[in-house]
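Morning!

This is the sequence you dropped in the shared folder:
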Amino acid sequence: MTQIPENIMPNSEPVEMLLNMGPQHPSTHGVFRMVLWVDGEKIVDVVPHIGYLHRGSEKLCEGEQYNQVITLFDRMDYIANFNNEHVYVRAVEKLMGLEVSERSEYIRVILCELNRIASHMLFIATMGLDAGAMTPSMFCFRGRERIQGLFESVSGARMMHNYFRIGGLKEDVPDDFVHQVREVLDLVKKDTEESDKLLSFNEIFLARLKNIAVMSAEDAIDFGLTGPCLRASGVDYDVRKAAPYSVYDRFDFDVPIGLDGDCWDRYYLRVQEVYQSIRIVEQALEQLPSGDVASSLGRRLLRPPAGEVYVRGENPRGELGVYLNSDGTDRPYRIKVRPPSFCNLSSLKHMLKDSWIADSVVILGALDIVLGEVDR
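The structure's back. Tokens below.
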């Protein structure tokens, strides 16, 4: 029997290995890199790296006229275009003291909630894929496509809509808009129910997500988490309820809250939010008033008074804030964004330490980051 030389005998001491995940890795959900220090399959330490997609959107805003900036907000969180547009135009409207017509406000809310549904359906689909489930993604993408088609009929684009305007909307919605939305809502509700029944309480899916990366309410607040990631830890905070804006105070809807603060809660909260957004849209359609949607400013060049404002809203990923500083010219002096994905990422190292490599995929996936907004 051949004897193994002592110098190549396995070392009984733990040996840490450096492992790169990303930036071109499908499970990192964008151009994002994690450097993992692992001992076997256990993660000992992690360093998240961003900046591979850096666009400089905030700096670019300083060179654009106020109405042109809307297109830059479309491209930050490109899964929640309308939600981003909404917060920005509200910031300029607040600075200028503009009143927006009721019809414009209702249409904005309808489109933003439909965008929230489309965003969450993409999340549910990718969460299933991250855990190894293919079929639920088909149901979710089918539902998402229905909404994208509706968006195209309204703005002319499936994404990057450039539809909201400071003081109103680019144009009114199609004549059959209400009928279209109701038809889409019925089908999307069925798509969500099918994926929910198939995935949420699946034995394998539960094993992959339950009790993984548990985050207490205190830690979630300390790390600056917002949106579903914060509410999954049991914190009852939603900007639409805590500081109602637009016409959200006219609707009856619930804010789902998690119990354990684990990956499954972060997933299932978004499923429940889809149903709540459907409720909001249904009520908004019932209350939708007639009237004009065009901005009272017309097409003239905007020069808001010198000053500064901060406006926030509930993006599908959490609290999106816009700080706007004007020097009285036709271009912003400074725009600074408080982005939910970027802030939620601050908790990643805490969540990943002492977890398994296989769990790192679902832990990152449950944060639902969008790199266009992180690397703005």
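Headline: The CA atoms of residues 313 and 320 lie 5 Å apart.

More detail when I'm at my desk.
O.
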